[in-house]
């Protein structure tokens, strides 16, 4: 693969926070944004506004919730996280059109784009129940 092929493939497989925000504002019916981060609810309480929360570990059993007629945009924590890439591969293998949001929620927050804080919805448990 030469450099041009690499960059074209990268642009086809990803979308920047700025480009997603503009595209979603222009044609919201075309996109389905998914927060695929794993981990306890309290560490995932801040999400991109309008995102559907389907952690990677629940994806296979919740596949029916993801529309095939929309472009799926997945995100995870940051540039160092590959969970969104794993989810994108899983969905692409099943016929979905998918792109990864570059930089994850960290890049989104860095740009001060709209988020939702669900921490008030989280019930605190005194014990882990282990």
UniProtKB/TrEMBL annotation:
PROSITE patterns: RHODANESE_3
Entries under InterPro entries matching the protein: GlpE_sulfurtransferase, Rhodanese-like_dom, Rhodanese-like_dom_sf
All residue ranges annotated as the Rhodanese domain in the record: 27-117
UniProt xrefs under Pfam families: Rhodanese (PF00581)
Species for this entry: Oceanobacillus kapialis
Protein name: Rhodanese-like domain-containing protein
SMART domains reported for this sequence: RHOD
């Amino acid at each position: 693969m030469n450099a041009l092929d690499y960059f074209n493939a990268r642009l086809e497989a990803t979308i920047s926070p700025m480009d997603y925000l503009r595209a979603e504002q222009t044609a919201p019916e075309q996109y389905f944004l998914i927060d695929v981060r794993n981990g306890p609810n309290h560490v995932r309480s801040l999400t991109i506004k309008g995102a559907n929360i389907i952690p990677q570990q629940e994806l296979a059993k919740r596949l029916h919730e993801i529309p095939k007629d929309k472009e799926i945009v997945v995100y995870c924590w940051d540039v160092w996280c590959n969970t969104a890439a794993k989810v994108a591969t899983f969905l692409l293998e099943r016929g979905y059109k998918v792109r990864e949001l570059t930089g994850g929620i960290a890049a989104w927050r860095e740009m001060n784009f709209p988020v939702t804080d669900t921490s008030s919805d989280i019930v605190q448990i005194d014990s882990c129940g282990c």
